[in-house]
């Protein structure tokens, strides 16, 4: 039996036993090279990423604030202790989280596989409260990038439906996570992409607070010691990126506390009735494959911006 056939069989067996969520809670795209899954019980956030070279899950799932997910900020920071606000997140702004709030998970209201697209709608939770639904809706379209079998394309839409006279107030300029990404702690080598196969290593001690980087081409990667990992490409970002490790222990456990964080940031005024859309891409593989894929994506999508309706 040929070596590549044996590898493919091993890959398929590993995938058959790796997914923790029941089949009706996890929607998956799998082209034999990469696998991506979204979980109904975690707000349809991305909860699974793996490749044939690395069949374990790359995503950290330790709490509702991890995952790969939509996360936004608006209004003034409020002390809502009397309402049950968590003491660790006080005061805090209006912060709808796709995965859920402190101690509670969001559940997708629409959760469908439409051909080769994973489509979802979610009422997010406010991060600072134990179980408070946000007056908002998140939509997401997750697919594989055409002709790029190691690349995932994610289109996000956020609709704010707050009362125009609520206590968080009118639109203020805030940094938005485009998106918030948490990977397992073994993807500890963080690099900004410079183009044409060139990278810049980024250093940051365990946080938070997170480090700040300014990737010139809107792409950063988290790689393990075998030089395999994930790059995030977010051309809609317009400022620095947050990044860094949490915890010192190197772990490949998706449910462990230690993790790696990357968040492209874009500054915009998110008002009570704002709707906006953007896209980002996840690129999987070794450093060489990621470089080639990023060069192609940058050539095609460098002019992508946020679509904003106020």
Model description:
- By secondary structure, the chain is mainly β.
- It has one domain (3-309): Distorted Sandwich (Beta-galactosidase, Chain A, domain 5).
- 10% of the residues lie in helices and 44% in strands.
- The strands form five sheets. Strands 8, 9, 11, 12, 14, 15, 17, 18, 21 and 22 form a ten-stranded antiparallel sheet that branches.
- What is the second-level CATH architecture? Distorted Sandwich
Helix content class: 10-25%
CATH topology: Beta-galactosidase, Chain A, domain 5
- CATH class descriptor name: Mainly Beta
Query: What's the shape?
Result: globular
Helix-strand category: mainly beta
- Report the mean per-residue pLDDT as an integer: 93
Number of strands: 22
Number of helices: 2
List descriptors.
single chain; mainly beta; 2 helices; ten-stranded antiparallel sheet; five-stranded antiparallel sheet; Beta-galactosidase, Chain A, domain 5; 310 residues
Characterize this entry briefly:
It is built from two helices and 22 strands. It has 310 residues and is mainly β.
Write the layout of secondary structure elements.
Layout: H1 3-18, E1 26-30, E2 34-39, E3 45-51, E4 68-71, E5 74-78, E6 92-94, E7 96-97, E8 108-114, E9 117-122, E10 125-126, E11 136-144, E12 151-160, E13 173-184, E14 189-195, E15 198-202, E16 211-213, E17 219-223, E18 228-233, E19 241-246, E20 259-269, E21 275-286, H2 287-301, E22 307-309
Antiparallel strand pairs: 1-2, 2-3, 4-13, 5-6, 7-10, 8-9, 9-11, 11-12, 12-21, 13-20, 14-15, 14-17, 16-19, 17-18, 18-21, 19-20, 21-22
